[in-house]
Amino acid sequence: LLGIVLWLLSNDPATAVVMVVIVSLLSGLPTLHHAWKQPYEETPAAFLAGAVGSLIILAGLEQFTFIGVALPLTILLTDGLIVAVIAARRSAMGLVKRKKSARVKA
User: How many other CB atoms are there within 10 angstroms of residue 16's CB atom?
Assistant: First the structure.
């Protein structure tokens, strides 16, 4: 909503896009933190779908302008990073779990 208000007040759609991008980045931080701490509680498929959807939007653009590219690119990078963190942390935690279970069996 802040983006729309700023757009109406400034009569500049780029101002609204900047605000939406900032809010999108800030709103992704708690999820990124949670994905790092508890990767098994996050669903990578949802974030992968968001990243792929944004990639499709970018591929379908006829003109690459800041207004058209900024938000889908932000979502692509943010969701892609979250998927990468989930995968990396699950892999690292899986190695730790396997080492611990190997010691218990021995």
Answer: 19
Token pair listed for 75: 């979502």
- Put simply, whether the predicted model's pTM sits higher than 0.85 gets the answer no
User: CA angle, 88 as apex, 84 and 92 as ends, to 5°?
Assistant: 170
pLDDT digits (tens, 9 = 90+) for 16-63: 888 889 999 999 999 999 999 999 999 999 999 999 999 999 999 999
Per the structure block, which two tokens stand in for 27?
């709103």
CB 31, CB 82: distance < 8 Å: yes
Q: Which residues contact 68 (CB under 8 A, 6 or more apart)?
A: 61
CA angle 5, 33, 20 (to 5 degrees): 15
